[in-house]
Design a protein that fits this description.
With 205 residues, this protein is of the alpha+beta class. It contains 3 helices and 11 strands, in the order E-H-E-E-H-E-E-E-E-E-H-E-E-E. It is globular and about 50 Å long.
Length: 205
Amino acid sequence: MSTTKPSPKPATLADLDALPPGVVGEIIEGVLYTMTKPRMPHQRTTRKIGGGIGEPFDDGRGGPGGWWIITEPGIELPNHTKEISPDVAGWRRERMPRMPRKGPITVAPDWVCEILSPMTRRHDLIHKLPYYAKVGVPYLWLVDLDARVMTAHQLSIATGQPGWTTTGTYSDETEARVPPFDAVPFNLASWWPPAGSIEGDEDEP
């Protein structure tokens, strides 16, 4: 669940540091948003996506390389965005040749992936998606754990304002090719937790 902390002035990293254990936050355009830390199914899917894409596109094993693929990076961008952290993000190395040794990343990603779990869905859809479009992120994937569906989106300015155009919907494909990583097929079916592996699944109709 995401909450907004009202403040007469832009939030700072000190506000993030003051959050209690088990609570994480992001500062987007000066506003501090807080939520409980994502739970195990969310974290597992983040790892599987980051690793599955990182191996061919970051490490260059079985793929073309040329990217940095990072899970939960700390990114600082203009307009008082002191901390925004996609579940997984990627940068083309031609745009960011070297990783910053110290401090946050200050280059907008070329691709982001957000996992829509009960703890993060509202925050991701209402606050983060418009901001990603505003700063010019070209590609966005949304992974819905409950529905076991991934939707791919590409930045569009057809209406005069930056927004998202859906370019594909995927679920149990074992060889999906999805831009910007369509050079390598992905087994999306492997992203989802096995049936009955999440507490409470047995109660579902």
